[in-house]
């Protein structure tokens, strides 16, 4: 199965390489311990992985994480299992790692299988990736990708999360994050065989060079700063969409300067979450992602 998938990707992308994710086949595991409401407990999690934000929070209240090792796998012996039980709302898991030099992945891929037929989008899992870079004082998020883990009851199914970058910088690290919070209980999703796809030799079409949005993530009532180079003096609009694609804010930027532009963006009315913003003018458009927390 893995060979067929790799061959299909190679045929679709003539100049493609795969970046290594630590423990990408999820074959190496570790046992961790905690103390729950009814006493001590243990759980298994892939080596070099950690609980996600929600599972960590629930563990703090004495609820055992619904994360474990499954012997049903796409290849190899094991896969990651995220469950929703009668006692928990679901689970999440994440891993952070360094990337090699000159490595700018275009997509995050893997395989998943659901415990049954899933028809309600509220029961989907999500695969999310953040591409990050150290700027000398802190780590910036410069790229983001997400896709649903929807319906795959009869066997493992490939997923692909295309990565969109906010600028032309190359990341030096990445965070992969899996979230499973279905409305239906007593279900699970299995995850296996993770990889990055890096397409080489293709020049990106960037309408607004040196576009940056910071801070990212942006917090509370904090204003964000958008900087970019405009090809000429013209009117532009910034449109912000939430994670389901709904336009939640449109900002007319009036007439841009030919050259460097700096715009302050108010984010106080935005709820916490992931957003896509598109800067549009007659010359073209450019899209970037940011997080409000």
UniProtKB/TrEMBL annotation:
Keywords: Signal
Signal peptide: 1-19
Domain Secretion system C-terminal sorting residue range list: 214-287
Domain of life, source organism: Bacteria
Name this protein carries in UniProt: T9SS type A sorting domain-containing protein
Species this chain originates from: Adhaeribacter terreus
């Amino acid at each position: 199965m893995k060979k067929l998938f790799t061959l299909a990707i190679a045929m679709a992308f003539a100049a493609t390489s795969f970046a290594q994710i630590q423990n990408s086949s999820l074959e190496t595991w570790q046992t961790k311990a905690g103390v729950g409401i009814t006493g001590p407990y243990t759980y298994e999690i892939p080596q070099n992985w950690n609980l996600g934000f929600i599972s960590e929070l629930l563990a703090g209240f004495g609820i055992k994480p619904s994360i474990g090792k499954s012997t049903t796998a796409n290849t190899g012996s094991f896969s990651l299992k995220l469950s929703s039980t009668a006692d928990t709302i679901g689970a999440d898991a994440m891993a952070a790692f360094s990337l090699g030099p000159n490595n700018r992945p275009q997509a995050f891929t893997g395989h998943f299988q659901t415990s049954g037929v899933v028809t309600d989008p509220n029961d989907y899992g999500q695969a999310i990736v953040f591409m990050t870079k150290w700027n000398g004082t802190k780590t910036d998020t410069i790229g983001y990708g997400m896709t649903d883990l929807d319906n795959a009851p009869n066997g493992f199914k490939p997923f692909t999360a295309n990565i969109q970058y906010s600028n032309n910088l190359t990341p030096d690290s990445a965070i992969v994050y899996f979230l499973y919070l279905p409305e239906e209980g007593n279900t699970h999703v299995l995850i296996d065989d993770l990889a990055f796809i890096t397409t080489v030799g293709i020049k990106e079409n960037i309408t607004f060079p040196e576009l940056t949005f910071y801070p990212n993530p942006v917090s509370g009532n904090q204003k964000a700063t958008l900087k970019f180079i405009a090809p000429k003096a013209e009117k532009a609009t910034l449109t912000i969409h939430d994670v389901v694609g709904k336009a939640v804010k449109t900002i007319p930027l009036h007439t841009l300067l030919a050259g460097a532009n700096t715009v302050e963006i108010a984010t106080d009315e935005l709820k916490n979450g992931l957003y896509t913003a598109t800067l549009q003018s007659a010359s073209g458009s450019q899209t970037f992602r940011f997080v409000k927390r």
